Amino acid sequence: MKKPMQQDGSEFNLGAHIKHLRRKKRWTLETLGEASGLSISALSKIENAQVSTSFDTVVKIAHGLGMPVAELFESTEHNSAPGVEAPKHYTARRVSTRRGEGQPFASDYYDYEVHSSELLHKGMIPLVMTIRTREVPPRADWSVHDGEEFIFVVSGELELHTSLYSPLVLKAGDSAYIDSTMGHAFVSRSDEDAVMLSVCLTERLQFNDEVVGRDGGR
Questions:
Q1: Is the CB of residue 110 less than 8 Å from the CB of residue 129?
Q2: Predicted structure pTM score
Q3: What pLDDT digit, counting tens, does each position of 18-52 carry?
Q4: Sign of the C-alpha dihedral, residues 92, 98, 104, 107?
Q5: Which of 23, 29, 77, 167 is deepest in the core (most CB within 10 A)?
Q6: Fold of the domain built from segment(s) 103-201
Q7: Which of 87, 91, 61 minimizes the C-alpha distance to 77?
Q8: How far apart are CA 170 and CA 152, in angstroms?
């Protein structure tokens, strides 16, 4: 698998990037801990890649830093092709992520690969998740975060657990849509680790005149 790289050619490291953003604000670990609700010890271990990091923890750190979650994974924005000017009243962005080139991080139960990380100011976070666990995680480790989430099973078979519904079995090609504020967790039910696409909507997108055009057309 090709490792995701940053603009300077170095390998992407989420913990090191968080440390860079914290120091850029001239914050101590204690300051970020107070803002994010995480302990100094936990933050130090995350920054130094000594522990795995769940998506929920990433959300807390992003909120603590006062930035959208997606921006924790952003590096550089793709511009339009040379000589092509984007329309004044429409966004005109495009980015692609080749197989194996997403920005990775992992929790105790899942492997994550963030796609489209080059695109700035996104309203959605596309994640390819590999579900390693065969047992339901403890309730304290279930994901709970703002927004909504679309789930599509790419391969294998998984079980979706939510705090308000009975477990739901999803096979390759199946999908689900949930409110992310509801506790949720995933378990692989197949011999191989299940792989799923998770698209998280972290901010409500407002399609105003500046985006859709003064005539209201799309």
A1: yes
A2: 0.68
A3: 998 999 999 999 999 999 999 999 999 889 888 87
A4: positive
A5: 29
A6: Jelly Rolls (2.60.120)
A7: 91
A8: 9
Task: For 76-92, write each residue's pLDDT tens digit.
Answer: 444 444 454 544 444 67
The superfamily in CATH containing domain 14-73 is: lambda repressor-like DNA-binding domains (1.10.260.40)
Q: Which two tokens stand for residue 205?
A: 């997108």
Beta strand ranges found along the chain (DSSP E): 103-106, 110-114, 124-131, 148-155, 157-162, 168-171, 175-179, 184-188, 194-201
* Structure tokens that stand for 12 in this block: 């992407």
Residue 66 neighbours by CB under 8 Å, 6+ apart: 35
Range(s) within the chain of domains with CATH label 2.60.120.10: 103-201
Amino acid at residue number 32 = L
